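Next up, a chain.

===
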Amino acid sequence: MKYHELINTTLDSVTVKRVYGDPYASDGVTIIPAAVVSGGVGGGTGHDQQGREGEGGGLGLNARPAGAYVIRNGDITWRPAYDLNRVVTAVGMIAIIYLVNRPRVARAQAAQRLR
């Protein structure tokens, strides 16, 4: 795929339909799901010592739920989506940082008491 074709494909892929889902209604409540979409594209061209030319590129897209707009009786509210995996990862990282730094803090406190 040529680099400019990759850029055009990327632009066609990132649309409002990727961010907002189709609304659905039930019992007088309308829900519009939303997502966070991010991505990147890269590419380049070049030639080797024999004069042969080439080009290439890559594309990566990521989407995750962000939440939903809830419309009930004319009132619109935002309900965020909670990613339990992200919460568990953050708590785990905090625990690891604490456990790694605990001996250093204890040594520093002991050294300060000796002064």
